[in-house]
Amino acid sequence: MTLIDITRTLSPSTAVWPGDQPVEWMWTARREQGSTVNLGAIRTSVHAGTHADAPLHFLDDGASIDDVPLRPFVGPVDVVHVTGACVTPVDVEAVAARRILFRTPASDVSTTAWPDTITAIHPEAIRVMKDRDVVLIGTDAPSIDPLESTALDAHHAMAEAGMVNLEGLHLSDVSPGRYRLLALPMKIEGADAAPVRAVLEPVGRE
């Protein structure tokens, strides 16, 4: 089975949203110091690197990540390349899958660098995808809204549509087309998001 890893690596050098908890990694026990095992510990924002948001992230009464259904995170997906300043309804006209991943210039930005600007997803494009029964949208950018947004219109449109989202994907080596997605968020009780290990399987290949 050929799998394409579209997950950004987490490390202490991973760029996070300005002011958010940075990724911290440490050893708590080492064999070289007499322990029978090596033991590691991590402290991180749940929005670092590749992750899935829960409605609780932007709605006080929204579901936490452990209550978000898993079915949308597994199944056929279309990868679409977008180079404009925003994903518009035109960009999704030809999409047939119920899951869509957007590759934008963000895939060319290092995991250790925070982008100055991103290709956001216009709320109207989300409403068009809702009409086509899309259940998941994903982006290689750290957010589906503009970095300066406080209204988070795309996040709210996504929640109203009953969709789940993936952010911070790494799609630089992924061609447009149909794949099978597997991208399950960690089950963290009461959390507003969770890290994800996301992979694509090219359709028709073993």
Walkthrough of the structure:
- The protein has 206 residues and is mainly β.
- The protein is 9% helix and 29% strand.
- The strands form three sheets. The chain has a seven-stranded mixed beta barrel. A two-stranded antiparallel ribbon has the order 2-3.
- Helix 1 packs parallel to helix 2.
- The mean pLDDT is 96.
Q: Topology of this structure?
A:
Blueprint: E1 4-5, E2 24-29, E3 39-43, E4 51-53, E5 74-81, E6 86-87, E7 99-103, E8 120-121, H1 123-131, E9 136-139, H2 153-161, E10 164-167, E11 177-185, E12 193-202
Parallel strand pairs: 5-7, 6-8, 7-9, 9-10
Antiparallel strand pairs: 1-12, 2-3, 4-10, 4-12, 5-11, 11-12
Helix pairs in contact: 1-2
Number of helices: 2
Alpha-carbon distance between the termini?
4 Å
Q: Which stretches of 5+ consecutive residues score pLDDT under 50?
A: none
One letter per element, helices H and strands E, the order comes to EEEEEEEEHEHEEE
Give average pLDDT, whole number: 96
What helical percentage do the residues reach? under 10%
| Secondary-structure class | mainly beta
Oligomer: single chain
Global outline: globular
Strand count, sense and barrel status of the largest sheet are:
7 strands, mixed, barrel
Classify the beta-strand content into a percent band: 25-35%
How do the strands of the widest beta sheet line up side by side?
Answer: 4-10-9-7-5-11-12
Report the count of strand segments: 12
Rounded to an integer in angstroms, the radius of gyration calculated over CA atoms is 17 Å
